[in-house]
Amino acid sequence: MSNCPSVMTRLTGLPSVIIVVLASAVMADPVGWRTDGTGRYPNAIPVTSWSTARNVIWVADLPSWSNATPVLTDEWVFVCSEPTTLICLRRSDGSFIWQQDHGFDQIPEFDRDREMPSSHGHNGYSSATPVIDGQHIYALFGNGVAAAYDLDGHRVWIRQVGEPDHSWGHSASPTMAGGYLIVQVDGTTIALDPLDGSTVWQQLGRHSFGSPVACRVGKLELVVTPSGNFLRARDGHILIEEAAHLEYATPVIVGDRAYFISGDARAYRMTQHRTGGLKLKLLWRSRLPKDRYYGSALIHDDLIYAITRGQKMTVLDTFAGKEVYTRKMDLSDRGGGNRIYSSPTLAGGYVFLTGLTGTTVVIKAGRTYSEVSRNDLERTRACPIFAGRQMFMRAGESLYCIGDSRTVASEVVR
After folding, report:
1. What does DSSP say about strands 40-41 and 345-347: parallel, antiparallel, or unpaired?
2. Share of the chain above pLDDT 70, in %
3. How far apart are CA 229 and CA 238, in angstroms?
């Protein structure tokens, strides 16, 4: 473990003697990108207005920026920092606990002088969000280096699992499926033994910047890739090949339905075949505004929220993929054609939409557009996450914990 004098915490709006509550929950499922991959926090009680000076519980100043989403446990919050750093902070006050680096010099008997692969300046090397299985945290960076740690920061293993060769870099986040750590490097999906990082299986597929997702259909554990491959988690066998293709976004699984939402939007119903295989039925296919969808869709209460990099949001129904409404959002006045990277996120009864320059518009979830507030932080490409009355947002070179200090002050640490 290493010290990090550059990580500082600013407590805002609370006396230093006040102890902040932490939601206490036993994590039975893996926690990673958008927490469970859906970006839904229906039980959250979020504030809907904030700024750098309002409703900020604490701010942690970090060594650099990152596009990765924060990941929470009861005690800790994990964030990434450019180019290849994983940092653990105390969730109650944002204070620094530990950090680990993932440069080539960290791998025993590896070529320390190897050059970093190419990456676009908007992407960097730390866009992949780590995943936690309850006892360990697993991280993957844009140099292809993956590693595992216990939650105290002791390294279990580290290795290069692949070498990204796309000129725009790597962004796919790891997940857990079938007892394995699942990573995707370029088009290759790889299952790793979480105990030692060894490769169990790997399967080629089309390149995508989106992440693989895990789900269960009947007794069948699956890995669903953005390139539309439905893989059996235990051995990587392709059950369905290239049912769709998302170049940038990630599929969203809700129950027995798999949604691939981009300009060519599709919804499938998944059922386990009596022979043990997978049956896929196309429910509908819709055309959305033609553009890149960097952010992944939000699905809630039979509605699909999708937004283009050019700020056009479309809401569809989940029954037939019919348009409910479309609206041009004004979230960023900079970025050229790339003004939206963050995915729509639900907290309580609200949808949060964030632009490149740090403006987040809060709207009421539903079939008509109803804007609640507009809020500004720092430049960001990350997604907010929510827990109870708190929102965590990676913006600029900081991590913000946002909440209503009047209610937070009365809560007790467990």
Report:
1. parallel
2. 91
3. 7
